[in-house]
Amino acid sequence: MSKTNATTGDARRDAVLDVSELTKIYPDGTLAVDGISFDVQAGDFCVIIGPSGCGKSTTLHSLVGTIEATDGTITLDGADITDAPTYERDIGLVFQDFQLFPHLSVAENAAYGLERIGAEDDEIEERVDDVLEMMNLADLADRQPTELSAGQKQRVALSRSLVLEPTLLLLDEPLGDMDYKLQKQMERELLRIHHELDITFVYVTHDQVQAMRLADQIVVMNDGQIEQSGSVDEVYNSPATAFVSTFVGDSN
Ligand code: ADP
Ligand code: MG
């Protein structure tokens, strides 16, 4: 599944995220993620696709630690983080519904994570200014979330994660509710910040066409399992299973 075809050692060397046999069984007995293994190379834009209910969100929440995995190991930058608390994982998560603090301004939303880890005021101000500048939000710093458009809200949500400079940023259908024109504009924005920052992205969508536009690596999930992981070219031109062939070909 790795892009590198050299020795096993070389192929592994650049994997910033290594997920092995990850399993999640919910308390009601639902097997949501069924022993999946995949890795992501540093700096890649990895897109996980699959139909609704196949386990994409459960996978992301297990990575960030907001859901406790039932089994398996998660390694980030060489460290086993399987049992680490969320705040120690160096992973950001951006949701479809933004989850901004409604009573805080744009700048206060962006500053929140830095305040929680006890950063100095000067540092907070500088980093918030930088991230709002990068996200084209500087003019909106004092606005409340209710005064923002959907695209602006999602840029605030991204700012709130990016200000912490995570090694890995997870995005769970972040453009899901937006109209097509706004989606395309936000896709360009995401590709720009991914290019500008040294952050690895794992991006979840059920939209195959969007995945093709964004991904360096595509992971195709179905029913809690991985059907195929590879480059856009591999998944599109050499589907490993009948499911991949149908699902990826669906809207093309
Ligand atoms: P996706 O994000 O791909 O739509 P999810 O990870 O949300 O999929 O869900 C995977 C499976 O786990 C689905 O069958 C879903 O109904 C089930 N599920 C999700 N959350 C819970 C929960 N808290 N308790 C029990 N089952 C759940
Ligand atoms: Mg989901």
UniProtKB/TrEMBL annotation:
Q: Where is the ABC transporter domain?
A: 17-248
**In the Enzyme Commission scheme, what number(s) does this protein have?**
7.3.2.6, 7.5.2.13
What keywords are assigned to this protein? ATP-binding, Molybdenum, Nucleotide-binding, Transport
Membrane topology per record: Peripheral membrane protein
This enzyme catalyses: L-arabinose(out) + ATP + H2O = L-arabinose(in) + ADP + phosphate + H(+); D-xylose(out) + ATP + H2O = D-xylose(in) + ADP + phosphate + H(+); tungstate(in) + ATP + H2O = tungstate(out) + ADP + phosphate + H(+)
Give compartment(s).
Cell membrane
* Gene Ontology molecular function, alphabetical: ABC-type tungstate transporter activity; ATP binding; ATP hydrolysis activity
Highest taxon, organism lineage: Archaea
Gene Ontology CC terms: plasma membrane; transmembrane transporter complex
Respond yes or no to whether keyword Transport is given for this record. yes
KW Nucleotide-binding (keyword) present: yes
**What family name appears in the similarity comment?**
Belongs to the ABC transporter superfamily. Sulfate/tungstate importer (TC 3.A.1.6) family. Belongs to the ABC transporter superfamily. Carbohydrate uptake transporter-1 (CUT1) (TC 3.A.1.1) family.
Give the function comment from the record: Part of the ABC transporter complex XacGHIJK involved in the uptake of xylose and arabinose. Responsible for energy coupling to the transport system.
- Subunit organization: The complex is composed of two ATP-binding proteins (XacJ and XacK), two transmembrane proteins (XacH and XacI) and a solute-binding protein (XacG).
Q: What is this protein called?
A: Molybdate/tungstate import ATP-binding protein WtpC
Question: Which species is listed as the source?
Answer: Halarchaeum nitratireducens
Q: Which residues of the full protein are shown?
A: 1 to 252 of 391
